[in-house]
Amino acid sequence: MSVEQPLWRALIAYRLLTLCYVLALYAHAYGRLRHPLGAGAYMAVLTVWTVGTVGRLRGAERCTKGFLAADLTVALTGVLLTAVVDTPARIQAGAFTLPSIWTAGSVLAFAIKGGWRWAALAASLVAAADLAERRAFTRDTVHNVILVWVSGVAIGYVVEVARASERTLARALRIEAATRERERLARDIHDGVLQVLAMVKRRGDRAGGEAAELGRLAGQQEAALRALISGERAAAEDAPAGPRDLRGLLAPLASTTVTVSAPATPVPLDPVAAAEVAAAVGAALDNVRRHAGPRAHAWILVEDEDGTVLVTVRDDGPGIPDGRLAAAEREGRLGVAQSIRGRLRDLGGTATLISVPGEGTEVELRLPRHPPPPDPDAPPARTAAAAGDAPRIGGTGELTEANQGSTA
Fold it and tell me: Which Pfam families match (predicted)?
């Protein structure tokens, strides 16, 4: 919602309420006016104009410059007409003008529409009309003029600041959306294209001959893609309706070297969340096959706790050398950084990696069923690449490492 809309609604309420106040003042002073019928004619015009133009004040698009000029003309006419329909004695005694404080509504309309400069212009015209009607610089006249001028300029300035803040917020949201799309693309590319290119390069190097040339070209394309994915944008994918059973997505991962253990009852998750958790588990298994060897065994354990789904991927490989995780992320290898940690972070969950050299690696994916909304004031979390020497990194969506080191 635009930050201006509450101001327009407040202005409509102000004009209607002050119209009632002006009519009450007119009824109270009816017998003391020089020309009460002339004043009554103006009150009728003011009433019809105020009620009939409510729709014009529902937004900046409808409140045109022509309407603002006409509205201010109605207010100024009432101020100047006061000298004709009222007695000089009442005017000198400080009696209210015919539109009274309704006039401030015209100035506020200028302020909301065009900012403090427009408000200053409208307030100056009102001040000139007041001085012309009073024909003297009385204390009450000066007080009213300053009050209208200052309030109009102040509100106009606040509106300009609010608009600037709204534009800044819109830019920030666009940048955040673009960043998330780039991270999603990086995960998808890592899970498919990059791994195929890396495999072609390795096998080409081993085969030699023409296959070596093919491997060299594949390696070049892999490096180019790793540099490109940080600047590309991915289209959002349509998510299927209804919850999905996480067990059904993880069961196909079972093999002679992968054991899947899950509860006997369904583990329902939001379709997007279920797909992302399954993809993160797949990325963890890819790392096991690549770095622990084809004979390494992996175990997937699914636990449906109270309000939380916990998936653990453990292997009996050699573990991860110290510093490998940070080095891989610096090289642009985003397997852990995006395919695992990034997915869980986007879902409001956490990813924990524990690796002891010689004793295998364990990846723990924890996802709350109802993740808390993100805190817009929270500082960005530090990653393993940024922390470098931090042994453990906590917080929503962070990958916690007992031993730093990584896979691609």
Answer: DUF5931 (PF19354), HATPase_c (PF02518), HisKA_3 (PF07730)
Which residue type, as a one-letter code, is found at position 25?
Answer: L
Residues 241-247 have a mean pLDDT of 81
Q: Domain spans of the chain? A: 5-170, 240-401
Burial class (CB in 10 A: 0-12, 13-18, 19+), 163: middle
For 151-199, what is each residue's pLDDT tens digit? 888 888 888 888 888 888 888 888 888 778 777 766 666 566 667 777 7
325/334 Cα distance (integer angstroms): 10
Find the DSSP H helices in 115-237.
116-134, 139-189, 195-207, 210-228
Give the whole-angstrom CA distance, residue 397 versus residue 374.
11
Which helix (H) or strand (E) covers residue 328, if one does?
A: helix 324-330
Find all residues with CB under 8 Å of 58, minimum gap 6, and list them.
Answer: 8, 12
Q: Which CATH architecture has domain 240-401?
A: 2-Layer Sandwich (3.30)
